[in-house]
Write a structure and sequence with these properties.
The complex is a heterodimer of chains A (84) and B (271).
Chain A: H1 3-11, H2 15-35, H3 40-54, E1 62-69, E2 72-79
Antiparallel strand pairs in A: 1-2
Chain B: E1 3-8, H1 16-29, E2 34-38, H2 46-50, H3 60-64, H4 70-73, E3 75-76, E4 83-86, H5 99-112, E5 115-119, H6 126-133, E6 137-142, H7 146-161, H8 164-167, E7 174-182, H9 184-188, H10 195-202, E8 205-211, H11 214-222, H12 233-245, H13 262-267
Parallel strand pairs in B: 1-5, 1-6, 2-4, 2-5, 6-7, 7-8
Antiparallel strand pairs in B: 3-4
The chains are: A alpha+beta (84), B alpha/beta (271).
Pfam families (chain A): MinE
InterPro entries (chain A): MinE, MinE_sf
Keywords (chain A): Cell cycle, Cell division
């Protein structure tokens, strides 16, 4: 091992800290979904169907997000319309 | 007032049954009348870990279905006066446990026991759901490893939303983290998540850290709960955890690398 390798070795992240980072991200994501009401996926599906009656869109062009803001929740619906 | 305590984890093989046997035995050792109930219907194993497998006549499902009384099904521990086991059934019928039936048995157990330890099966199916449904407190057994930590977090979500306490709007289940199979040596090398890492991610009270230890397999081989092996590090760590469960503050041990002495290194001492 030369001197250059020695410094590079020290910079390398330990596998435990990679595990921690990955866990923090996935756990935070799953906790967010957990607090969402059970009807959200169905609501999203039906909304897409309704919009499709009028505009031709893909599933991923409709985003339904429920945001919790203390004592009230905001349901945000974001529809990307295709180019005319 | 009787307390129902569930030992759960989500993931399998992390040490739920070992922990249930150890905590149940530890509580009985300290004079509390305790019963350990196996909820793993179809895959009964608590009886083996507790060393009473040859004395199972009636089981949990027999009691629920009215084929036996609770008195007939409870197995009295040979070593300790205050300790009883209720074995799981080996039936393959997935619907053998019903919420109503389990509730009835829990109510009856509450009348004569101080502590009811529910040994949950792995997963989030019916058995696991019913094991935690009636609980007052939960011990979440976790290994310092990504899939176990993630599953534990999932269980914490279920404990907070799908239990009787949650449904009735009562005070939530008191949650405890028990970290098992911990290797301080590997944590030091950066190969394993440390106690602080897991505590930070799950954000619940730490009940104890059980070091990876040969004594756990040795104990299960013999059907003696590892807490009775007072010489072993795992046994001592379980004793500390039981003390904390009873409200005593004791410092956490076995978190640092065990340094071998000169002679031990020379002759290679065994743990």
């Amino acid at each position: 091992m030369n001197l250059f390798d020695f410094f590079r070795e020290r910079k390398k992240q330990s596998s435990a800290s990679i595990a921690k980072e990955r866990l923090q991200i996935i756990v935070a994501h799953e906790r967010g979904q957990r607090s969402a009401p059970d009807y959200l996926p169905d609501l999203q599906k039906e909304l897409i169907e309704v919009i499709r009656k009028y505009v031709n869109i893909d599933n991923d062009q409709v985003q339904v997000v429920l945001e919790d803001q203390g004592n009230c929740s905001i349901l945000e619906l974001n529809v990307t319309l295709p180019d005319r | 007032m009787a307390k129902i305590l569930v030992v759960t984890s989500g993931k399998g093989g992390v040490g739920k049954t070992t922990t249930s046997a150890a905590i149940g035995t530890g509580l009985a050792l300290r004079g509390h009348k305790t019963v350990v109930v196996d909820f793993d219907v179809g895959l009964r194993n608590l009886d083996l870990i507790m060393g009473c497998e040859r004395r199972v006549v009636y089981d949990f499902v027999n009691v629920i279905q009215g084929d036996a009384t609770l008195g007939q099904a409870l197995i009295k521990d040979k070593r300790l006066e205050n300790l009883y086991v209720l074995a799981a059934s080996q039936t393959r019928d997935k619907d053998a446990l019903s919420a109503e039936g389990v509730g009835r048995v829990m109510d009856e157990l509450r009348e004569s026991f101080e502590y009811i330890i529910c040994d949950s099966p792995a997963g989030i199916e019916k058995g696991a759901h019913l094991a935690m449904y009636f609980a007052d407190e939960a011990v979440v057994v976790t290994n310092p490893e990504v899939s176990s930590v993630r599953d534990s977090d999932r269980m914490l979500g279920l404990l907070a939303s799908k239990s009787r306490r949650a449904e009735n709007g009562e005070e939530p289940i008191k949650e405890h983290l028990l970290l098992t199979r911990y290797s301080p040596d590997r944590v030091n090398k950066g190969e394993m998540l440390g106690v602080e890492d897991v505590e930070e991610i799950l954000a619940i009270r730490l009940l104890g850290v059980i070091p990876e230890s040969q004594s756990v397999l040795k104990a299960s081989n013999q059907g003696i709960p590892v807490i009775l092996d007072e010489q072993s590090d795992a046994g001592q760590a379980y004793s500390d955890a039981v003390e904390r469960l009873l409200g005593k503050e004791t410092p956490h041990r076995f978190l640092d690398v065990h340094k071998k002495g000169f002679l031990q290194r020379l002759f290679g001492g065994r743990e």
